Amino acid sequence: MSELGEAICLDGKEKLYSTMAGEVPTKDEGLQEKEIKLRYTSIYRLRWDRLQRFKNYLNENFEEIELNRTRLDYGFDVQLFAITKESKCNLVQVMKSFIKNKDDYVKTYTRETYILIAVNCDDSLKGAFAICTGAGYHKVIPYVDTTFAYSVSKKILDPKTVGQFKCRFLNGRTLCNDKLFHNDRKSSNLPTIASDSFFLAEGFQAQIKALFNSGLDFLSGSSIKVTRFSLKIMKGLSIDDMFCFMKELLHVHLSNAYTDAEEFEVLTYVKPVKSLDLRKKLDHHLEVEFLEESKVNRKRFSICHKDYEQWVNCENVQLSEKTKTGRVKIKTWEGRPYISDIFDALGEEHRDWSLLQIMYKSKGKRRSDKFLNCIYGHVIYERKYYFHIGKDWFKVDVEYIRRMNHVFFKVVKEKLILEVDEGYLPLPWCSEKHSNEQMNADHCITFCRGVLQKQLSKEHKTKIRDIFLSSAQTSNQRRPLHCQDDTEVSKSFFAGNNSDNADEENNLPPSDSYDQDRENEPSLSDNEDNADSNDDDDGNSGLKRKRHSACPREKRRKYDVSAVKSLLSKIIGEFECELWLKSLTSIDEDKYNKMYYMLLNQFLEENPDSQLNIRLGVDPDNKFPTFLHGDKILVENVELFDILKITKDKLYLYHVKEGVGQKTRDAASQIRISANLINKARETSQTQDILGKWYEQIINYKAKDKTRLKLKKDFEKRKCSKEDFLDLFLKKKIVYVYAFLDDTKGRKPFNELVSDEQCLLTKEDVYKELKVETQETLKEKIDVVCESLKSNGILSEKDIGFSVERKFLDLNKKKIFQIFENVGFSDAQANKLFHTLGEHFMPTVSVKSHIAKFELIRLAHDFNSSYPDFELRFCQIRKP
Asked: Where are the compositionally biased (Acidic residues) regions (predicted)?
């Protein structure tokens, strides 16, 4: 019989344990002298509205055990239910053919399940609990109050002793362990752990507060394990103590004498959505957002499978649709597709998402799942945040989003590499996704203002100009009408840059004077001169200018890049020219990575005194090229880096990605795996096995890849030994850099993110929005409104302004408008003020993808905790 059964039914008799009734047990009554204790027992708080339904279920499926007394001194009415089941041992059944005396061993055994219900009907402490044994918890969970355990734990547990988290991350699984153990970090408080990793808490353990122990001596020094469903006391308690504890829990829950520990608030920010009706609405809303919203909003999602470790190494991924005649293949990819690839494959055609399926092969096995179950991300539905993880939906408190944005801002501010830092990647990147045969001439100006303008000699500038002019003339027939002006723009631009000593800003023609500069420039050919002179002779000198001015200015400032691409071969060897032209040419990630080793290295070596060498921290004593190419060079199936940069004291390992979203997650995983491997090489005897293999792949390369062959020749020419290569990683500071191109149009760069401190609302902000009344009258109204909003909990006063609290969302919009109307604001003014509050509600973070923000926060946390000797930085690659 179980401990619960023994504690209540002694010697097989249906007698209530005498101490529960205040009686003294005696040997004559056949009762045990030793008090039986329940060890590691979970307590479940039952929902009052489902209590009778639960009792009916137990009466139908369980046997109720008759008790001597059902009303206890602690005010609980008790019922005990039991069910028995005959079972056989599987191992014995399998081995019975080998057992000599089968009758002695091949027997059945009885499995007992007990469920105790304790109901307190006192009006001041109304509540019901359940205690169960065996598989009884499966029967109890549907009737449990899932808010009680976390609510009480915030009042009775010490947040400084929290440990042994079991959690799920909102951006899905990674190759890291899903359990975080912090028992060895007693000084760490809960907010630091939570805000650094952002999880959906499924369980944790903490000690009971000393203050709470004052009336419950038997709980002294014990801890409680908390889940969404139950409280488990990690100590043996008698049934008498158990009921005493349950009554105290009701008192704590309903009393105002106990305050919540703020550190525990983060545990309740994320809650699973259980309503079937709401889940269906969210599924539909998810599909609508995919089909109707812009591609920018689609970046809030990623595609993944629940078996993440298999998904990372998947191949032959297939998207198919179930039809009446069978499955129809929509698209197949060799490796993992991105969410944008899925959108492109689905197109604009309406499909039933419930019929779509993802299939893939990993480690020789085929796996599949519904397409809807493979989507990770968030939606905003009825002004609330919901996360979709696999097939589950979770409601996220807006305070959680605010805290995440705050932490994200701090991480970016701390980790971002600025353009003046030596770790910055200087070359701009024109991605294939936004390629255009006609690019704006401002791109040329912007680029030459930056990295290479001062390094370009007069001879090189003239050569580039000649190439542009010749390409313009030879391709005149296929160029648009406005290209004649384009050539003049190019000519004007390079002519203005012929002076090496001229100031940067003075070298560049201002856009406002563009038309005037164009009119004063000489034409390209004799035919054009004759045409102009004929126009003048006819008295129509303004006709040509008028025709040109009718063409939009943005169009006139473009030139034909395709004409230049065909002539790249003519300037191979003139690396400055090629770098400049490459920056205006759409390239993929691999080609961008190669530019640093194939082109920029040569420029740095031939211009050792340039400002660029100084800014990039080039080490003149370095045996190796400053930049090394590592894309697609694998060690133990791991890519250590895309680009390696060597300075005097540091080794920069860049992982480069185009876009911010799902690719951020991939980059974060690559960085973690690479850091783990490099750390193993530095700390263990596997240095030769890891770093030595990378070196050997370069030295022993025999295929035809030009970059790898050049790398091999450079190593041989410079006499770079394996020991020299190993010393780079063993003696220099390791800096991992997540380098990304944010290809979203109109988005602010990361160094312009707005913090929540900058998002405080001031009265001056409100004055600027409402300019329709006299200043004094308006100030009086604003003062009254701010005080009213403070008293309603919508605003809280800070040193330099007000912060808009989450009650702004909790209150009905009509109630907020009523506050404005009471002061005398018009509907238009109330509307403006309402939107002003909304804009200041949370930090303005330009990154819309919560997946990207989660990953970068979590990556920074992982480096701080797991790789303290390594440094993590972020680098935003600029567009041309």
From this structure: 526-539
- Do 650 and 417 meet the contact criterion of CB atoms below 8 Å apart? no
Q: How far is residue 370's CA from residue 352's CA, in Å, rounded to a whole number? A: 12
Contact 675, 737 (CB under 8 A): no
What is the C-alpha separation between 803 and 798, in angstroms, rounded?
7
What CA–CA distances, in Å, run from 586 to 341, 471, 578, 708, 879?
Answer: 19, 19, 13, 23, 11
Q: Between these two residues, 461 and 670, which has the higher pLDDT value?
A: 670
Q: Report residue 79 as tokens.
A: 């019922």
Q: How confident is the model at residue 585 (pLDDT cuts 50, 70, 90)?
A: low
User: Where are the domains positioned within the chain?
Assistant: 3-155+233-255, 276-396, 432-741, 763-839
Can you read off the two tokens belonging to residue 741? Answer: 């191109």
Cα separation, 451 vs 261, in Å, equals 53
Mean pLDDT of the region 67-82: 78
Check residue 187 and give its pLDDT.
Answer: 34
Among all chains, which residue has been given the structure tokens 């027992």? Answer: 41
Q: What is the bridge-based pairing of β-strands 237-238 and 438-440?
A: unpaired
Give the separation between CA 332 and CA 330, rounded to whole angstroms.
Answer: 7
Q: What are the φ/ψ torsions at residue 74 (nearest 5 degrees)? A: -85, 5
How many angstroms separate the CA atoms of 492 and 464, rounded? 13
Determine if residue 619 is left, alpha or beta; phi over 0 gives left, psi from -120 to 50 gives alpha, anything else beta.
beta
Give the per-residue pLDDT at 641.
96
Q: Indicate the pLDDT class of residue 691, thresholds 50, 70 and 90.
A: very high
- Can you spell out the DSSP letters for 622-681? -SS-SEEE-TT-EETTEE--SEEEEBSSEEEEEEEEESSSHHHHHHHHHHHHHHHHHHHH
pLDDT at 573: 37
For residues 748 and 738, give the distance between their C-alpha atoms in angstroms, rounded to a whole number.
18
Contacts of 274 (CB under 8 A, 6+ apart): none
Element (H, E) at 365: strand 365-370
Helix H segments across 72-135?
A: 90-95, 102-105
CA distance linking residue 450 with residue 467, whole number of Å? 22
**Per-residue pLDDT averaged across 34-50, rounded?**
83
Would you call 196 helix, strand, or coil by DSSP?
helix
pLDDT tens for each residue of 386-396: 888 778 888 88
Contact between 55 and 62 (Cβ < 8 Å):
no
Residue 81 to residue 373: CA distance in whole angstroms: 39
* 3-state secondary structure at position 868: coil
- The number of residues in the chain equals 880
pLDDT mean over 188-193: 46
- Tell me the average pLDDT of the chain: 71
* pLDDT level of residue 533 (50, 70, 90 thresholds): very low
Tokens of 328: 């129809």
Q: 398 by DSSP, 3-state: which?
A: helix
Q: Decide which of 416 and 661 is more confident.
A: 416
* 400 pLDDT more than 80: no
Contact of 508 with 449, CB cutoff 8 Å: yes
Instruction: Please tell me whether residue 323 adopts helix, strand or coil conformation.
Output: strand
Residue with tokens 């509205």: 49
Angle at 33 between CA 29 and CA 37, to 5 degrees: 120
In this structure, are residues 584 and 443 in contact, taking their beta carbons and an 8 Å threshold?
yes
d(CA 630, CA 197): 30
Structural contact between residues 146 and 228, judged by C-beta atoms closer than 8 angstroms: yes
Structure tokens at 854: 């989660």
Q: Which two tokens stand for residue 37?
A: 């204790």
The per-residue pLDDT for 648 is 92
Is 193 a residue whose pLDDT tops 80?
A: no
pTM for the structure as a whole = 0.63
Question: Mapping DSSP to helix (H, G, I), strand (E, B) and coil, where does residue 319 land?
Answer: strand
How confident is the model over 425-438, as pLDDT tens digits?
988 887 765 544 33
